[in-house]
Design brief:
Length: 216
Amino acid sequence: MKKTKMILGLSLVAVAGLILVAADHVDAPAVTGNAADITDVYTFQGQDTNNLAFAVNTQGLLSPNATTAATFNENVMIEINIDNTGDNVEDLVIQAIKRDDKMYFFGPYAPTTTGTSSTIKTAAASGSVTISTYGLAPLIAEKNGMKFFAGPRDDPFFFDLGQFKAILGGTASGFKNPGTDTFAGTNVLSIVVEVPKAMLGTADKLNVWAETKKKQ
């Protein structure tokens, strides 16, 4: 059984109910703007209510020109961690890693190691999808009840940075409705995987977080 060792590059932790949103668009210089930079994690019920969708966005604040040049890194794995026992330790992982023009997915499966070091269990391969090209129709693959996507997307996170600064500066008392979307016109590189809930255990609450890990 072949396994590839990966070491933690960046983590973002959040708790998921039916809908989860977490965002972090500015990181340390070592990861900002590259394939290890996670901007958002989303977990939500699929259009098929028997499924749960997981989305991880990376490389935020991409202009249209920068989006054309942006790529996933073959030495960076994106890992979705799922805790279904409430102890904040991953019981299941879903892993995605690029090879050539495709994104390969593994899991969900119970990892042999937890925390900052991961391995890829190739026997747990669940599917692959050709990475979509910016400006063209998205490519979606399906296998064994799961759906997969990888590629550029409009940044879905809404944040009024100007108003936020005004609040911090004491010249405003709250956000406007709807406010100004600072991220309008910018893009991210995203992976999305939709999974039958039956593959995730029987817990009525999941803790979900995502990490990027670099190959060692």
